[in-house]
Structure formats: C-alpha cells, structure tokens
TrEMBL record:
Tetrapolymerization of the monopyrrole PBG into the hydroxymethylbilane pre-uroporphyrinogen in several discrete steps. This is Porphobilinogen deaminase. Belongs to the HMBS family. The porphobilinogen subunits are added to the dipyrromethane group. Residues 225-297 form the Porphobilinogen deaminase C-terminal domain. Pfam families: Porphobil_deam, Porphobil_deamC. Binds 1 dipyrromethane group covalently. Keywords: Porphyrin biosynthesis, Transferase.
Length: 309
C-alpha cells in the first residue's frame, strides 16, 4: 500500500479550493489517496500588504516544503509564479484552464459602461488599473488589496465603499461566486495577466514516478497557451514593473491547431497603450511569445517599460 500523497497548500479559501480540485483529479487519475498539508507562509503571518511582500513569499514557502520533503507536490496559481524556474522542482502538470478573463462586480448589477462618471473602481494589479484608465470612461480607479472575499465586500458588504471591483473570473469561479459577476470583460478591453486562470502542479524533479503520474493531469493546449504568454512576459520583464498583459487562444485551423497570442503594454496612467498579436503553431509557443515581446519592444514598449520604474 502506498502512503497518501501529501499536497501542500496555503490556507486561504482560494488556495484550498484549487488544491481540493487537483487532489480529486490526482485521485481519479492515479487511485492514490491525497492528503492536504497546510503550509503557513510568512505572507499569511504578516499584516503587511501583499503588494509590498510580493506573492513570492507564498510561492517560496510551498517550494521550501517541497525541497525539505515535507510535502510531495503543490498547486500554484500559475500567474503568481516567477518566470524563472526553480532548481530541483518540475511543473509536472498544467490542468485545463479556467476562464482567463477578468470580471467586474458592480453595485446594482451594472456593467462598465453603465457606471456613472466618477464611479470608484477598485483593483489590485497595475495591469488592470492601466487598462481601466485607458478606456477613457472617467472612472476613478483606486488600488485595493486583500483576498477575494475582502475585495468583494468593498462593493457588496455592509460597509461597501466602492462602486465596483475588477477581479479574475477564475478565482471567483473556483470559490463558487461567479454568479455575483456583473460583467465578464472582453479581452479587447481588459487583456488578462499572463497565465491567468491556469494552475501549475509542481513536484520534485527527482520523483520520476510522481512526475509521470501527475502528467495525467496535463492539458496540452493550456500548457502551450501559458508557455507563449509567459515567454512574452519573461522577455519583457528585464528590470521593469510596467503593466504587461498577454492572452493566447488555441483554435483548430485548417492545418491543425493554431495559437493566437495577444500582448499589451500600457502606461500606468492609461495614456500609452500598445497592443499587438502573432499567430503560429502550439509547438512554437515559446518562440511566438518571444517574437511578440520583440515586436512590442520595437513598437516602443522599451521606453514605456523604462518610464515606469
Ligand atoms: N494575484 C492574486 C491572484 N492569483 C490568482 C488569482 C485567481 C485567478 C487565477 O488563478 O489566475 C488571484 C486573484 C485575482 O487576480 O483576482
């Protein structure tokens, strides 16, 4: 009898929901029992804002637990992973992606265009702040923090102080709260973060049996999409903190699957807004991402990236 596999997870509602989803999929695919091991991170203990700590603290606590053999595998929100890999660890599976789009949750069921001028919209990422400002809707866009429930309460709770918030649809869907979304935002207006809605299932590279078992959860089109989006991010990232968005769609073409990658770099005030795209085959996902990043740099993204330091 094999001992249960230990799946390390943070204790937040979203992390637990994602971990339970993957635990069930691993059990179904392998017949192995999976037990959740809660890892308390420096980020969970601290009251400092996540923006200052960086999501890296959550990721590194799980990675330390993997390296120390306290757990066998971990599930990350892929978009929170640094673009550089981690020595000794391997992303054994990228399960099917949730809807990667961003979502608006507004009072009185409103959509973006139904919000009155001067409406106050809260959101966390610079990428979203910049794109909301680029719409020219005369919204007052303010940075907010906290977990999904905290952010939703700023619009729907008894002490609501915002007209709307923008969050990833995927997180709300996994928490069973997609029904509270008042508009799912078209990627033409709000291009998502690279890898948004995707999960990364990580284990020790040396555990070849587990690497092989977890591969049953891998979804090739999602992996190709995420590879393209993150290649773009990694190529642009050199020393910058500018808002970068990327979204790859995989569709059936005449000669097999085709990948359609869109990328955007927007100045934080929303005034300069560069959007370009490329197509190719999923096998070339990484090259397409790098090439689109080069296109964006040629079109002036470098000055945009430089000006936001
Ligand atoms: N940075 C926070 C974060 N990391 C992952 C998700 C959930 C969506 C996903 O899995 O991409 C969220 C919340 C959000 O952006 O609204």
């Amino acid at each position: 009898m094999n001992a249960p596999l230990r799946l390390g997870t943070r204790g937040s509602a979203l992390a637990l929901a994602q971990s339970r989803l993957v635990a069930a999929a691993v059990h179904a695919a392998t017949g192995r029992e999976v037990e959740l091991v809660e890892i308390v991170t420096a980020g969970d203990r601290s009251s400092a804002p996540v923006l200052r700590l960086g999501v890296g603290v959550f990721v590194s606590a799980l990675r330390d637990a993997l390296t120390d053999h306290r757990i066998d595998f971990a599930v990350h929100s892929y978009k929170d992973l640094p673009t550089a890999g981690h020595p000794g660890l391997h992303i054994a599976a990228v399960p099917p992606r949730e809807d990667p789009r961003d979502a608006l949750i507004a009072r009185d069921g409103r959509t973006l265009t139904e919000l009155p001028a001067g409406a106050v919209v809260g959101t966390g990422a610079l990428r979203r702040i910049a794109q909301l400002r680029a719409l020219g809707l005369q919204l007052e866009v303010v940075p907010i923090r906290g977990n999904v429930d905290t952010r939703m309460a700023r619009v729907l709770g008894p002490a609501a102080d915002l007209d709307a918030v923008v969050l990833a649809r995927a997180g709300l869907a996994r928490l069973g709260r997609a029904g509270e979304i008042t508009e799912t935002l078209d990627p033409m207006l709000m291009l998502p973060a690279p890898a948004q809605g995707a999960l990364a299932v990580e284990c020790r590279a040396e555990d070849i049996d587990l690497v092989e078992s977890l591969a049953a959860l891998d979804h090739a089109p999602t992996r190709a999409a995420v590879t393209a989006e993150r290649a773009l991010l990694a190529t642009l990232e050199a020393g910058c903190s500018a808002p970068v968005a990327a979204y790859a769609e995989i569709a059936e073409g005449d000669d097999g699957d085709e990948i359609y990658l869109r990328g955007a770099v927007i100045s934080p005030d929303g005034v300069r807004d560069l959007r370009l795209s490329r197509t190719g085959t999923p096998a070339d996902a990484a090259e397409i991402g790098k090439a689109l990043a080069a296109d964006l740099l040629d079109a002036g993204a470098d000055t945009l990236l430089g000006s936001t330091e």
